[in-house]
Design brief:
Elements (H helix, E strand, L loop, with lengths): L2 H20 L9 H27 L6 H4 L2 H34 L19 H32 L5 H8 L2 H15 L8 H21 L8 E12 L2 E7 L12 E5 L7 E4 L10 E7 L8 H4 L5 E8 L10 E7 L4 H13 L5 E8 L4 H14 L2 E6 H4 L4 H5 L8 E6 L2 H14 L6 E3 L6
Helix pairs in contact: 1-2, 1-4, 2-4, 2-7, 2-8, 4-5, 5-6, 5-7, 7-8, 10-11
Bound molecules: flavin-adenine dinucleotide.
């Protein structure tokens, strides 16, 4: 199971366990309404904790990159949390709203309300919280409807990415409404228990992240202003070299950066296809014209144009203990390998046997020559396969490069369907899952 999946389930188990330390789903005396009250608390707390972690991940926190093995995996966890929040919040909404409807339809009979302490016996804070309950319920209900719509937009891939991005940032505002809903409606007894402490930490982290997002300050400490020094078309890819100032912290081969060349369009992630050299101070990118924005880049980008570069991010760093590495690239997925080839060529690092399998289109001859040259300097065994002329790599071809599965690792970057095939072959060959590394090019 990939780490983002295990982290998701562990988080759910952690929050649930802490809640069960504080309360029970079998209240005594048992009855539907008594159950509904505690289940409401449980589902509400679980939903807001999931949303808080998703909110924290949305601002690209550097401290979570290493444990999650890269920002691309953090975004995958963010997506899982979004789906989880949708499911749990829907259950929470139904137990609240559905119960009211069922009472209205005559299916359930609401019991007499227990006596409440008189208003003048309450502290100022308790009185304020009580006065806000109705408003907090309304805020929670409407926030739920809007969040469902926004998460739906995020999950329906047919909706253009630019529309998704422009709507998705407003979830931060809705989240702040849900924080208010939680603070007013959560059982006061919880705050002094472990679940309350974890909830408070997540709410503070989530609120801070929401403000950072609303003020468009995501990644601001990792941004530098660069300038395009060279542009060239390479088959169906655009090669762009960007000169960055000394503030750029450097990067390891395989990392990526968010590049903004048009403020209205916003940042797009691209792998840095060059090894860092402080004297040169340049970053090279290869961009495939795959969509709305990248399709316009050949006409839009000009030499000397200023661009903002944010990063570096990612942990696709070729660091492992295996004796043999097999690198597999498809199309523009060659970019992290180009950077590592350059690094190995310049520093002649003593790395055990490396084989690079590159599935490409036949019209990229200049790029193929560059790769051949870099692989020769880096002493990396290179196998090209033109997908137009010779088809895809086969299982038997891949097997010829796997000498000992236990000491072989695979580093893959390319289209998602190619990645699924590589995963399947690695499993068939007995390569341990932890030896399989993949850069996830899709963030949504
Ligand atoms: C870690 C990482 C590294 C990448 N490295 C490269 C690379 O080296 N070369 C390359 O050509 N491509 C790379 N990509 C893919 C590249 O970011 C997208 O192809 C590009 O952003 C598409 O933009 P578009 O508007 O043309 O496409 P659209 O048609 O608008 O979208 C196509 C898909 O691209 C993705 N996408 C679009 N806009 C963004 C955005 N602002 N932020 C994140 N994802 C977006 C979405 O998954 C979307 O579904 C990388 C992606 C990731 C996540």
């Amino acid at each position: 199971m990939p780490r983002y999946q295990s982290s998701f389930w562990l988080f759910l188990i952690l929050i649930s366990s802490l809640w069960f330390l504080a309360d029970s789903l079998w209240p005594k005396p048992w009855g539907y309404f008594a159950f509904r009250n505690v289940f409401n608390q449980y589902s509400g707390i679980l939903a807001i904790c999931i949303m808080s972690l998703a909110m924290i991940l949305a601002v690209r926190p550097a401290f979570l990159e290493k444990p999650m093995k890269g920002l691309d995996k953090c975004y995958r966890l963010h997506k899982w949390l979004g789906i989880g929040a949708l499911v749990v919040a829907t259950v929470h909404w139904w137990i609240t709203k559905g119960t009211k409807w069922m009472v209205g339809w005559g299916w359930l009979e609401r019991p007499e309300r227990g006596g409440r302490p008189p208003a003048d016996s309450l502290s100022t804070i308790e009185a304020f919280i009580r006065s806000q309950r109705g408003f907090a319920e309304t805020v929670g209900e409407w926030a739920f409807y809007i969040v469902v719509a926004f998460i739906g937009i995020a999950l329906i891939k047919r909706i253009p990415y630019s529309f998704f991005r422009s709507t998705h940032r407003w979830i931060a505002l809705i989240y702040l409404g849900l924080v208010f809903h939680t603070v007013i409606l959560v059982k006061a007894d919880y705050w002094t228990q472990p679940i309350g402490i974890v909830l408070a930490v997540l709410l503070v982290g989530g609120t801070f992240s929401a403000v950072v997002s609303l003020f468009r300050k995501i990644g601001s400490s990792r941004k530098v202003e660069g300038r395009i020094s060279h542009i060239a078309q390479q088959g169906d890819m655009l090669e762009a070299t960007v000169v960055v100032p000394s503030k750029w912290p450097g990067h390891t081969p395989g990392q990526f950066a968010f590049v903004t060349s048009n403020a209205a369009e916003g940042p797009h992630p691209y792998t840095i296809a060059s090894h860092w050299n402080k004297k040169r101070s340049t970053l090279r990118f290869f961009v495939k014209q795959l969509g709305d924005w990248t399709g316009q880049l050949p006409e839009y980008l000009t030499p000397n144009m200023p661009v903002t570069v944010e990063g570096p991010y990612g942990c696709f760093d070729f660091k492992d203990t295996s004796t043999d590495q097999i690198w597999i690239a498809g199309g523009v997925g060659i970019t992290p390998f180009l950077a590592q080839l350059e690094a190995l060529g310049e520093h002649s690092i003593d790395k055990s046997s490396i084989t690079l399998l590159y599935s490409h289109k036949s019209d990229n001859s200049a790029l193929l020559e560059q790769i051949q040259h870099a692989a020769a300097l880096a002493k990396v065994h290179l196998v090209f396969k033109s997908s137009d002329q010779a088809g895809r790599f086969t299982e038997s071809e891949l097997k010829t490069f796997i000498k000992d599965p236990k000491s072989t690792s695979i580093w893959f970057c390319g289209p998602a369907s190619f990645g699924d095939w590589v995963h399947q072959q690695a499993r068939n060959a007995g390569i341990p899952n932890r030896h399989l590394h993949q850069e996830l090019f899709e963030m949504r």
